[in-house]
C-alpha cells in the first residue's frame, strides 16, 4: 500500500516536471489568439444599399430544421435538404453571442453588440454594462452621412432588437421611453409590429402623451391599413407603418397563422425598399422576432414557417443586390439561439420524421385561443380530453387509438403515456393561473405556457425527432452570411461585436 502511494507520487512529480518543460515549446497564452485574427478592415468604397437581417433566436438548429422540413417534402428515398437561399451566400462566418453577464444572452445585449460594437449586460439597450454611458448605434452615423434608415420587425417596433438601432435605455422594458426615442428620431421607415405601452401607462413619466401623436407631430406619416401601406413610396417622407393585424402582444401573426392577403414580413421589406429609395442610399435592419417567440414556446412548426418567410424577406433585398451588385451589402445573422432546439430525440433514435410537422396547421397561439373558448364554456373539473380531441386532430394531426383514422395514420396516434400527459396538462390548463403550481417540475414541463398547448407541440416535435431543452435562450454561437460589397470580411470565426466593426469599416465610419 505504502509503495503504491509512493509510486503515484513519483508519477505525478514526473508529469509536473514534464509539463513545465513542454510548456516552453507552446505559445505563452494559447487563448490570446482567439478573435485577434478576424479582418475588420475594409479599403474599398462604401456600398449604397445595406441590409442587416437578424433572425431573433435563430442559430444553426432553426435554419437546419427549416431546410430539413423543406427537403422532407420532396419525399426522396435518402435524406435531402432544401437549402434556404441565404445559406448559399458566398461568405459564411460564425459569431459568439455571450454578453457581459452570461454565456446565455438576451436580444438587448446581443443587439447592442451588433448595432454598436460593445459587450453589455442582459436587458441593456445601447449603454455600457454599468448603465453610465450611452453608445451610438451605427444607424446614427449613417444618418449623419446622408443615408436613409429603415427599421423593420414583425414583433413590436419598440422591442429590444429594433430598439438597439435607435434608442438608449437602461432597460429593454422601458417601452414608452424607447417609443419616445423612435418618435423623436429623424429615421425614415419604421414598419411591422405595433408599439408596446404607446400611452405610457407603465412608464415613470407622468402625464405621458401617446407616442403615436408625438410621432405625427414630429412629421411621421402614420399608417396601418393595407391600402395606405401599399400606397407608400419614396415621396412619403418619414413613415411609421403598423401591420393591420396584430396577433399576440402587438406582434404580426405567425407566418403559419397569416391569412391569404394579409401583409407578411416580405411585404414590409419590399415596401421599405420603395420608401427608402434615394440617390445617397439607405440602411435597413429587418428582424424576425417571431422565430424567437416560436422557439421560446417550443413550437418547432411555427419556427420553421417563420424561418422560411424570413428567407423570403431576405430575397426581396437580394433583388436589390442583383440590380446593384457593386453598391449593395446584405448581412444575415441571428442574435442568439432560443429554445435549445435540436435535431434528434431519444424516442426516435437515428431517425427523423419531418413530414409529421406538416400536420400542424396553426401556431400554439391560435390553439391557445381555441382552448380559452373551451375554458369559457366548461366548468373546471368538468373537463375531458375527449371534448377537445377533434380540435387537437385538426391543429396538430394527433389522434387517439380509437380515432377513425388511427389505422391509416398510425404514426400520429398518441401512445398511452402521451395521452396521460395530455390529460394532466388539460387539468393544469383548466386551473386559474394563480392556482397553478409553478414548482420546479411544473416549470420544466410547461414553462409559463398554456400546459395543454405546449404539451401538444412537445409530443408532435418528439414524434418528428426534434426536441427543446429550455423555454429561454441558449449559449450557442450564430452563423453569419453575407453577399455584396465587403462580403469577405464576414468569413471566419469572430465575436458578435466584430459584426459592428466590420460594418463600420465597410461604411467608412471612424
Ligand atoms: Zn427571446
From TrEMBL:
UniProt cross-references to PROSITE patterns, sorted A to Z: ALKALINE_PHOSPHATASE
Write down the superkingdom of origin: Bacteria
Q: Does the keyword Protease apply?
A: no
**Magnesium keyword on record:** yes
Keyword annotations of the record: Hydrolase, Magnesium, Metal-binding, Phosphoprotein, Zinc
Instruction: Name the SMART domains on file.
Output: alkPPc
Q: Which family does it belong to?
A: Belongs to the alkaline phosphatase family.
This protein is called Alkaline phosphatase
Task: Give the cofactors, semicolon-separated.
Answer: Zn(2+); Mg(2+)
Amino acid at each position: 500500500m505504502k509503495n503504491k502511494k509512493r509510486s503515484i507520487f513519483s508519477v505525478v512529480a514526473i508529469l509536473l516536471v514534464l509539463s513545465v518543460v513542454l510548456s516552453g515549446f507552446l505559445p505563452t497564452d494559447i487563448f490570446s489568439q482567439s478573435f485577434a485574427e478576424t479582418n475588420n478592415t475594409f479599403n474599398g468604397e462604401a456600398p449604397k444599399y445595406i441590409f442587416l437581417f437578424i433572425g431573433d433566436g435563430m442559430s444553426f438548429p432553426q435554419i437546419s430544421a427549416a431546410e430539413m422540413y423543406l427537403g422532407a417534402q420532396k419525399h426522396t428515398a435518402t435524406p435531402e435538404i432544401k437549402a434556404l437561399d441565404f445559406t448559399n451566400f458566398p461568405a459564411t462566418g460564425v459569431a459568439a453571442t455571450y454578453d457581459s453577464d452570461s454565456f446565455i444572452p438576451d436580444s438587448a445585449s446581443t443587439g447592442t453588440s451588433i448595432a454598436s460594437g460593445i459587450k453589455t449586460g442582459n436587458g441593456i439597450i445601447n449603454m455600457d454594462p454599468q448603465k453610465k454611458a450611452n453608445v451610438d448605434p451605427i444607424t446614427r452615423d449613417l444618418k449623419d452621412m446622408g443615408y436613409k434608415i429603415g427599421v423593420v420587425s414583425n414583433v413590436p417596433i419598440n422591442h429590444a432588437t429594433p430598439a438597439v438601432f435607435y434608442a438608449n435605455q437602461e432597460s429593454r422594458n422601458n417601452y414608452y421611453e424607447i417609443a419616445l426615442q423612435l418618435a423623436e428620431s429623424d429615421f425614415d421607415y419604421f414598419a411591422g409590429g405595433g408599439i408596446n405601452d404607446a400611452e405610457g401607462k407603465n412608464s415613470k413619466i407622468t402625464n405621458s402623451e401617446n407616442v403615436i401623436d408625438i410621432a405625427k407631430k414630429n412629421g411621421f406619416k402614420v399608417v396601418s391599413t393595407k391600402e395606405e401601406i401599399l400606397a407608400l413610396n419614396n415621396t412619403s417622407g418619414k413613415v411609421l407603418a403598423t401591420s393591420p393585424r396584430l396577433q399576440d402582444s402587438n406582434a404580426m401573426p405567425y407566418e403559419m397563422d397569416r391569412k391569404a392577403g394579409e401583409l407578411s414580413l416580405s411585404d414590409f421589406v419590399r415596401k421599405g425598399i420603395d420608401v427608402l429609395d434615394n440617390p445617397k442610399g439607405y440602411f435597413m435592419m429587418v428582424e424576425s422576432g417571431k422565430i424567437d417567440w416560436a422557439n421560446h414556446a417550443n413550437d418547432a412548426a411555427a419556427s420553421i414557417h417563420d424561418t422560411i418567410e424570413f428567407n423570403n424577406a431576405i430575397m426581396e433585398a437580394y433583388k436589390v443586390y442583383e440590380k446593384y451588385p457593386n453598391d449593395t451589402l446584405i448581412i444575415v445573422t441571428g442574435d442568439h439561439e432560443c429554445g435549445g432546439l435540436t435535431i434528434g430525440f431519444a424516442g426516435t433514435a437515428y431517425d427523423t420524421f419531418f413530414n409529421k410537422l406538416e400536420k400542424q396547421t396553426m401556431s400554439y397561439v391560435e390553439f391557445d385561443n381555441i382552448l380559452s373558448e373551451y375554458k369559457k364554456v366548461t366548468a373546471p373539473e368538468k373537463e375531458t380530453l375527449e371534448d377537445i380531441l377533434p380540435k387537437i386532430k385538426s391543429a396538430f394531426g394527433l389522434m387517439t387509438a380509437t380515432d377513425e383514422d388511427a389505422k391509416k395514420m398510425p404514426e400520429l396516434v398518441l401512445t398511452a403515456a402521451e395521452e396521460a400527459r395530455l390529460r394532466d396538462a388539460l387539468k393544469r390548463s383548466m386551473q386559474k393561473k394563480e392556482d397553478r403550481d409553478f414548482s420546479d417540475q411544473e416549470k420544466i414541463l410547461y414553462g409559463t405556457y398554456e400546459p395543454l398547448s405546449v404539451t401538444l407541440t412537445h409530443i408532435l416535435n418528439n414524434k418528428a425527432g426534434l426536441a427543446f431543452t429550455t423555454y429561454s435562450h441558449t449559449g450557442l454561437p450564430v452563423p453569419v452570411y453575407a453577399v455584396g460589397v465587403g462580403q469577405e470580411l464576414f468569413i471566419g470565426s469572430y465575436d458578435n461585436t466584430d459584426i459592428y466593426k466590420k460594418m463600420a469599416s465597410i461604411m467608412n465610419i471612424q
